[in-house]
Amino acid sequence: MSRRSKREYFERIYWRYRKAGKREKTRILDEFCRVCGYNRKYAIRKLNGPPPNDQIPKPRKPRGCTYANQVISILEAVWEVAG
Question: Which of 8, 26, 65, 70 has a Cα at 20 to 30 A from 80?
Answer without folding.
Answer: 65
